[in-house]
Design brief:
about 180 residues, 6 helices, 4 strands, 4-stranded antiparallel β-sheet, alpha+beta, elongated
């Protein structure tokens, strides 16, 4: 068993141990609370603040389902970013790529700044979210970023090759190649 598998097993065991206390605190939300507490210990640096209420609720519901239904852990690496931080990241990406950024958008175009994007971990959690997140309005939006999901409750946007790419146009009568 590798380190991540051991930590995941410990996290699952803690959630089960937390269930009775969570039930006393909120009988209707015991599984959600126990999941939140256990994942908070596993991913102590994550911060859901700044996500829109709908995006935060969707992410919380999806990760709770993943945890209890399939034993899958999903942690948040990055959620909301303020415009200044996004600008710094964008400027660094432009410098790194000689003016052709493929992983960072300017603040005015960033779903992170709007509070509707989340970067997740581990990769297995992202795979779960890609397969099941649509039930919660969470969709992977870029081919080159397995970790990046956005809250789009009305359905998936066209998936782009990378941030900043021009949306693909579908031929008349054919669905967009970007939809997945």
């Amino acid at each position: 068993m590798n380190r991540d598998e051991v930590l995941a097993a410990i996290t699952r065991a803690l959630a089960v141990l937390f269930l009775p206390v969570a039930f006393v605190r909120g009988p209707r939300h015991a599984r959600r609370l126990a999941c939140r507490w256990a994942l908070g210990l596993r991913f102590p640096a994550e911060n859901l603040a700044g996500l829109t209420p709908a995006a935060r609720e969707a992410f919380t519901a999806a990760r709770t389902e993943a945890f209890w239904r399939d034993g899958q852990l999903i942690g948040l690496t990055s959620g909301h970013r303020d415009a200044a931080m996004q600008h710094r990241m964008y400027v660094a990406e432009v410098a790194r790529t000689a003016g052709a950024p493929v992983t960072v958008l300017p603040p005015e175009r960033s779903a992170h700044v709007r509070g509707t994007a989340m970067d997740v971990r581990p990769r297995a959690g992202a795979r779960w979210l890609e397969a099941h997140g649509w039930r919660h309005g969470l969709h992977r939006t870029y081919d080159n970023e397995w970790w990046h999901f956005e809250h789009h409750p009305d359905g998936p946007p066209a998936r782009l090759p990378h941030p900043g790419a021009t949306p693909r146009r579908a031929a008349p009568g054919r669905p967009s190649a970007g939809l997945r």
